[in-house]
Design brief:
Length: 126
């Protein structure tokens, strides 16, 4: 079983930045791909960014390209999402997700992720 705990959310003005973190339990963090998803009020959960097991490959939703950066530190069992140039439409609950061991590459479908954090709220507003 893997437990994921997100942190770093909050209220930020348009154009500002936030860095989300996701701390994972267990000893096999480096044996699985990870991703960030988000869910805005009244909308379905959507893929934001994914990263392969060693961090060598990343993929972004069109809405995140050029503004967000996903990264991971396997020595610290931690996943990150650096978000710059934030817009009001980025307002959502952001979730960290992990695939099962042995699934080394990301997917943009939430059904492919076995473990989820509780989410952290990001609000972009002036």
């Amino acid at each position: 079983q893997v437990q994921l705990v997100e942190s770093g959310g909050g209220l930020v003005q348009p154009g500002g930045s936030l860095r989300l973190s996701c701390s994972a339990s267990g000893r096999t963090f480096d044996k699985k791909a990870m991703a960030w998803f988000r869910q805005a009020p009244g909308k379905e959960r959507e893929f934001v960014a994914g990263i392969s097991w060693r961090g060598g490959s990343t993929f972004y939703a069109d809405s995140a390209k050029g503004r967000f950066t996903i990264s991971r530190d396997n020595a610290k069992n931690t996943l990150y999402l650096q978000m710059n140039s934030l817009k009001p439409e980025d307002t959502a609950v952001y979730y960290c997700a992990a695939r099962r061991d042995g699934y080394y590459y990301y997917s943009d479908s939430d059904v492919d992720y076995a473990y989820w954090g509780q989410g952290t709220q990001v609000t972009v507003s002036s």
